[in-house]
Amino acid sequence: KVPSVTDIGLKPRPVKKVAVIGGGLMGSGIATALILSNIYVILKEINSDFLFKGIKMIEVNVQGLVARKKLTKDRAVTALALLKGVLDYSEFKDVDMVIEAVIESIPLKQKIFSEIELACHSHCILVSDTSTIDLNLIGEKTQSQDRIVGAHFFSPAHVMPFLEIVRTEKTSAQVVLDLMEVGRAIKKVSVVVGNCAGFAVNRTFFPYSQSAHILVNLGLDVFRIDRLISSFGLPMGPFQLQDLVGYGVAVAVSKIFAEAFPDRTFRSPVVDLLIKDGRNGKKNGKGYYIYQKGIKPKPD
Ligand code: 3HC
């Protein structure tokens, strides 16, 4: 029987210090959301160059909020003071929660989960920000499946209000409740879903994105589709969104869908062509669109 978070007697445990692993787009956005809610964050990267870039992205996120008059300068200074960059696990001993936000690689995530199982105390909540990978597989090499839970954030993670919490049949009700409380603290709308291919969001979102790719394959123009979808009322079209998120996620999601639903998955050749051309969307300034600071994205 899957335990319920409404089990009588359960109370969320305090989460005051969180380690975020990976200072890329997702990790830096998640770290930003946490420090803005007064949660102390240690950001771990594999080298000082990546760490510097991650911290810079967090500073830019916070400054963006100040520029939008959503945060005072004083609050920005207080929030950034809660952030510390690290290159190893030596400070993981007293964290309440670890959020892994690295690329969608199963062996890498398995390695990280084995390492954090050793580095953290035995009650630490072990979270993955995976968008599609089976959480049982991620925790396969650990003895801590009851502490493993998914927290699927959406880019830009410090702006988008939704949080998909993924529980497996082994995740304890306590851990789900703890993560829901963190979601509440960082002002997200949390929804608890099951551990299945694509979880709930990508089950919904992938067919939409795939339909756009089918239209392109039939000869329709990428930019026209984006324009039409924007005029329909969505903040951006499917291709601009793919540029925002980066192509690694798109490849990982379509691979998992192709395995789970081979009869209804269309694998577009377009993303592979963009990757071959050295493009990675907004992350490196070149995707379907060209991105330059301060200028509206230009179709390329
Ligand atoms: N920092 C802080 N706030 C920002 C911001 C930033 N950098 N950019 C935008 N915002 C806020 C604005 O202040 C505004 O808030 P308000 O409504 O309270 O005033 C709101 O976002 C809208 O901003 P704008 O009207 O200026 O419009 P923008 O075009 O600049 O918005 C956007 C940018 C919020 C990214 C918007 O385009 C959007 O919502 N796009 C869709 C994003 C999306 O769908 N993300 C999910 C991706 S899927 C994913 O991440 C899954 C994972 O597995 C990879």
Automatic annotation (TrEMBL):
The chain holds residues 294 to 593 of 724 of the full protein. Monomer. Residues 17-195 form the 3-hydroxyacyl-CoA dehydrogenase NAD binding domain. It is found in: Peroxisome. In the N-terminal section; belongs to the enoyl-CoA hydratase/isomerase family. Residues 198-291 form the 3-hydroxyacyl-CoA dehydrogenase C-terminal domain. This is Peroxisomal fatty acid beta-oxidation multifunctional protein AIM1. Coiled coil: none annotated.
